[in-house]
Amino acid sequence: MYYGIEKSRLDNNVLFIDASKECTKVTNSNKLEEKHIDKILDAFVKRENQEYFCSLVASEKIAEEDYNLSVSTYVEQEDTTEKIVIKVLNAEIKRIVKREQVLRDEIDKIITEIEG
């Protein structure tokens, strides 16, 4: 199957694909498997935006970005940082402080008995 660049295409949009996560880690290198190739090829053929994977960008936007062709300029990275729920964290801290006080009371009781 041949997927060439079409000369008859009506737009000048550029498809940026961030395929950096589309591989399997193998020792010190990465392996591009059939499923990864299929996903990349599918995105290329469809030419549609896919969150965190590819972005179809108008040539005017590229000009606005001073012709920067870095994929990261146009394809947003997914935020994978852990979300912390303050109420849950605060409840856990209260539980730890309460447990610490119980342990301190037990230690004080033992020390009193020893000194006694």
Descriptive terms for the model:
single chain, about 120 residues, alpha+beta, two-stranded antiparallel ribbon, two-stranded antiparallel sheet, 4 strands, elongated
Could you walk me through the main structural features you see in this protein, from its secondary elements to its overall organization?
The protein has 116 residues and is an alpha+beta fold. It folds into two domains: 14-74, no CATH class; 82-116. 46% of the residues lie in helices and 12% in strands. The strands form two sheets. The chain has a two-stranded antiparallel ribbon. A two-stranded antiparallel ribbon has the order 2-3. A hairpin with a 2-residue loop joins β2 and β3 (29-31). The longest helix has 30 residues, at 86-115. The protein is elongated. It starts with 13 loop residues before the first strand and ends with a helix. The model has no long low-confidence stretch (mean pLDDT 87).
User: Could you give the order of the helices and strands?
Assistant: EEEHEHHH
Separation of the first and last Cα atoms = 89 Å
What's the helical proportion of residues? 40-55%
Please count the beta strands (DSSP E, at least 2 residues each).
4
Largest sheet descriptor: 2 strands, antiparallel
- Oligomeric state: single chain
Low-confidence stretches: none
Shape: elongated
> What is the arithmetic mean of pLDDT?
87
Number of domains: 2
Helix count from the secondary structure assignment? 4
> What is the beta-strand fraction?
5-15%
Question: What's the alpha carbon Rg, rounded to whole Å?
Answer: 28 Å
Structure class: alpha+beta
- Major β-sheet strand ordering: 1-4
